[in-house]
Amino acid sequence: MCGALIGRAFTVDEQIRGSTTIVEVLRRYPGGEAAKLMSSLNWACAYCAGAFHEPLTMAAKRHACDPRAVLDAFRALDEPGGPAAELVARAATRHG
User: Fold this and answer.
1) Cα dihedral sign, 69-75-79-82
2) Comparing C-alpha atoms, which of 96, 87, 90, 78 is closest to residue 17?
3) Cα(40)–Cα(91) distance, rounded to whole angstroms?
4) Angle at 85 between CA 20 and CA 80, to 5 degrees
5) Residue 7's CB: how many other CB atoms inside 10 A?
6) How far apart are CA 52 and CA 50, in angstroms?
7) CB 60 within 8 A of CB 70
8) Helix (H) or strand (E) holding 2
9) Structural domain boundaries enclosing 71
10) What is the crossing angle of helices 67-75 and 85-92, to 10°?
11) How many independent structural domains does the chain possess?
């Protein structure tokens, strides 16, 4: 499965990175899995104009979340059953 994204293509086999933008993540999961995870994190990124350019780790920092935990949660979307509840809770925890 392939999809075009703002100047580059991706495959689902490609791992989500800290530099992956919010829009790239949303497009990677057309069934809404990423949007549901963002909702669980209390992120309104799907409606933010910055989503086109903001990488996942920058969004995590902007929302005072641990970038590593957030990255792990989004990567877990590729696993059967998606991210575990404790992983989502860790990613949603605000620091600072």
Assistant:
1) positive
2) 78
3) 9
4) 65
5) 5
6) 5
7) yes
8) strand 2-5
9) 2-92
10) 150
11) 1
Nearest to 47 by CA among 68, 71, 22: 22
Token couple for 53: 């350019």
Q: Which two tokens stand for residue 72?
A: 């792990």
Q: Angle 26-71-46 (CA atoms, 0-180°, nearest 5)?
A: 25
Question: How far is residue 19 CA from its own chain's centroid?
Answer: 10
Per-residue pLDDT of the chain (96 residues; tens, 9 = 90+): 334 344 444 455 589 999 999 999 999 999 999 999 999 999 987 678 878 889 999 999 999 999 999 999 999 999 999 999 999 999 999 997
Q: Is 42 left (phi over 0), alpha (psi -120 to 50) or beta?
A: left
In this structure, are residues 7 and 23 in contact, taking their beta carbons and an 8 Å threshold?
A: no
Here the tokens at position 21 are: 């933008």
